[in-house]
Amino acid sequence: MTTGGTGASAPRVALVHDWLTGMRGGEKVLEALCTLYPDAPLYTLVHVRGSVSPLIESRRIVTSFVQALPASGRHYRHYLPLFPAAVEWLDLDGYDLIISSSHCAVKSVLRPPSAVHVCYCHSPMRYAWDQFDQYFGPRQVGAAASRVLRPIMAGLARWDAATAGRVDQYVANSRYVADRIRRYYNRASTVVYPPVDTSFYRPAPNRATDPPFLIVSALVPYKRVDLAIEACQRIGARLDIVGRGPERERLERMAGPGVRFLGWKEDDEVRALYQQAAAVLLPGTEDFGIVPVEAQACGTPVVALGAGGAVETVQHGVTGILAEDSTPESFAAALDECQRTPFDRDVIRANAERFSRTRFLEQFPAVVAQARRDRDAKLAMERAS
Description:
Elements: E1 13-20, H1 25-36, E2 42-47, H2 54-57, E3 61-63, H3 72-75, H4 83-89, E4 97-102, E5 116-121, H5 126-129, H6 132-136, H7 138-141, H8 143-162, E6 169-172, H9 175-185, E7 189-191, E8 213-216, H10 225-235, E9 239-242, H11 248-254, E10 259-263, H12 267-276, E11 280-282, H13 290-297, E12 302-305, H14 310-313, E13 320-323, H15 328-340, H16 345-352, H17 357-384
Parallel strand pairs: 1-2, 1-4, 2-3, 4-5, 5-6, 6-7, 8-9, 9-10, 11-12, 12-13
């Protein structure tokens, strides 16, 4: 059954997601949207077959022309300058309701005039607005390429802002992102926290003695895994790192013998690692950060930078420790404080339940229904005038 409709007939719904190349926090939100809208086809810029969950893979998936470009599955970010054209190339005629799940470009899809577009915004386009240096700075791509890319990304930022009005209702994944939507798009939004499967992520009956710290993350610059490695080395703590990405080789070069790179893991393996970790670390600024909530659902404390979504999900001294700033000294001090704090794992678990999947499945359709009522009222006023 399609959810979120008003009136006698169910709306014809299309889901839109930036790209399907792996299962991260955004894809877990997309899974929940697939549950809410089981008959909706899924439009995306690029799809790497088998890279996402069976529920998502079972959709009718429509890709953009970027799919046919060389090595698009691995190097899709190289085609960022083409994303505006690719997004506008997606044909959404015939749909009444567009649900986009966007952290890059698909919030700017062209919708039919009578359709309602609700955007679940994980973040305004990071590359173009405030994280250019983390992705395309001289250290990442070289000085010459960085100089070439800077005006291109500035152009993308102008396009991103100019197309903000294509969305009828923004849904932010945190208050932090709601502030960024207001700053960059001059639009209000409703906060609906992402769904965390608190029935799957749960505490283990027994815990290991003297466990390592744990990071579960894509190995990309803005995640600041390097900061966690250096902080752990300062206090002589062991660290396990789950994830893959372009930063792995650099991180391995700086890591000492106490750091293990475990690569990609299945969800049940990640759950077991959460359950046994001394704490799960979040050294970068996240828009929301689903990993800290999954860890807390397992009864495990979190050490996070006191910025971004972590401020909304981690209770300092109760469910984890928030570092004052993004220096190795500050993060090492937070790790040391965590080791000395007697956490109540039942309290940690209870905090995570505020972000349950059930809560998302109730709140998001209510926002969609209100957006459709607002759109109907606007159209009625236009007809009357």
